[in-house]
Structure formats: structure tokens, C-alpha cells
Amino acid sequence: GFLGVDLALTGDTLVYPIQIDNLREDNSDSTSGRTNTNNALIDRFDMRYEGAGVKLSASFSQTATVPTGGSTVVVVALIPSNAGVALAGAIGSGPVNAIIHVKAHGRYGDDTEFDTAEFPVPVILSQVGTSPFACTGADAGKTPACCPQDGQTAACACL
To answer: Rg of the Cα trace of the chain?
Structure first.
């Protein structure tokens, strides 16, 4: 399903966890003293946004290490604030169905550069500024955050 994002409530941003796998094997050799150079060192995420009336690109500098033969989860700024402001101007109040195509750029330990394949993240963009969940009582004044994705139980909290 689509991830719903109300840019008026999120401050024109979206951060989201993405799992990144490193399929390279450990190339260390204890007999020759060679160290493993296949750890992946990510230094940037590139996003491409496509949807009705939306065609925009953005990059976000962020570091992460993905170990050889392993994986890691990185909380990525899929919509950094500079892109969010431009998207908000393009969509009006929305809603607009869009796809965020995200890929990572980095280097392996031997300084070889890489780019991952693009990973599509479907989103519904809007900027209505209202939430079905309200922060009241001791939480009054806090920002409501909800995660009602398809296949998930709705969870809301005041942040």
C-alpha cells in the first residue's frame, strides 16, 4: 500500500526505515594479511519523485555501514526539507499519488564506488494539516504521528 504523508503535519519531511543488504563476501585472507575491503560505506541517498504534477530529484548526505554478507536498517530522509517545500508547492492540498525512487551511493573499503538499484516507495502526498488523531490532555501541543499502513494495525502517538 501507499504511505500517507501530510507535509503540513511533518514539517515538509518524511523519514522512513529501509533495510540495505550487502551481498559481497568477506575477501580477507589471514595467510597474506589482506583485510576485508567489501564492507559498504554509504554516504548519500538520492531520491527521484514522480507523480501527477510532480517531477523532482533530491539528495541527502547520510552515512551508514553495511557489513560484508550482512544487512542494516537505515532511517532515511526520503523527503528532506528542501524537497518537501518544493513538493508542497507542486501538489497544492493534494492528495497526490507519487513514487519516491530511492537509491544509495557509497564506497567499498577498497574505495570502489557503487550505487544501489532504485527502491520504489509509493506515497500519497497531501498538506491538509489535520490528523484523525488528536493530542489532548497532558499531550496537548505535541505533534500527532500515526502509522495506519495497509497490513498494519493503526498506531498513533504524540511526539
So the answer is: 19
Cβ-based burial of 148 (10 A; exposed 0-12, middle 13-18, buried ≥19): middle
Q: Determine if the pTM surpasses 0.90.
A: no
Q: What are the CA-CA distances from residue 73 to residues 16, 19, 28, 63, 88 (Å)?
A: 10, 4, 25, 12, 28
The span from the CA of 128 to the CA of 148, in Å, is 17
Relative to beta strand 119-126, strand 3-6 is: parallel
Q: What share of the chain in percent tops pLDDT 90?
A: 53
Residues whose CB is less than 8 angstroms from the CB of residue 31 and which lie 6 or more positions away in sequence, other chains included? none
**What's the full length of the chain, in residues?**
159
Buried b vs exposed e over 3-12: b needs ≥16 C-beta within 10 Å? bebbbbbbeb
